[in-house]
Automatic annotation (TrEMBL):
Belongs to the Nudix hydrolase family. NudJ subfamily. Its EC number is 3.6.1.-. Gene3D superfamilies: Nucleoside Triphosphate Pyrophosphohydrolase. Its cofactor is Mg(2+). This is Phosphatase NudJ.
Length: 165
């Protein structure tokens, strides 16, 4: 099978505080878009670790994952290039921790913003992913699974390549 299909794996956070949800506003090829704090899984990390890292990099907040909200898959065609991409998103809920206001946010991130559910629904045309609202609504319905549902084998954390000095 020469061209094996592989989805892009991402991790996203659903973070609620006082009836507001933490989103990010980012500059994309399609203009300013809203998204849950989210990003790609890097080599050598679990989906939970990726989520914690991405929240910090995109919002400046520490994140303490407490549950898996769900696993979501969608297909996306890039406007500029026509690339056909499939994403598999692991969405986690948890608590927001300390805010590190001194941190620079990831390239393209304009700001982190707290929004009500009504505000999020009203801006649906600006959502970067179809799962921005879906994951929040699943969370509000009480959809939670133990973090242990996502098992990462120890082999992920060890490089198969020897690094020589």
């Amino acid at each position: 099978m020469p061209n094996r299909w592989k989805p892009n794996v991402t991790a996203a956070a659903v973070i609620e505080r006082d009836g507001h949800f933490l989103l990010i506003e980012e500059d994309t090829a399609d203009g300013l878009r809203l998204n849950n704090p989210a990003g790609h899984l890097d080599p050598g990390e679990s989906p939970v670790q990726a989520c914690v890292r991405e929240v910090l990099e995109e919002t400046g907040f520490d994140f303490i994952p407490e549950a898996l909200v769900g696993i979501y898959m969608n297909r996306f065609v890039r406007t500029r290039t026509g690339d056909d991409i499939t994403y598999m998103r692991f969405a986690f809920s948890g608590k927001v921790g300390a805010h590190h206001a001194w941190r620079s946010l990831d390239d393209g991130i304009v700001r982190a913003v707290w929004m009500t559910l009504d505000e999020i629904r009203a801006t649906a045309t600006r959502h970067r992913s179809p799962f921005v609202l879906v994951t929040i609504e699943d969370y509000l319905r009480g959809q939670r699974y133990p973090l242990e549902m996502v098992h990462t084998d120890v082999s992920v954390f060890h490089s198969p390549f020897k690094i020589s000095a």
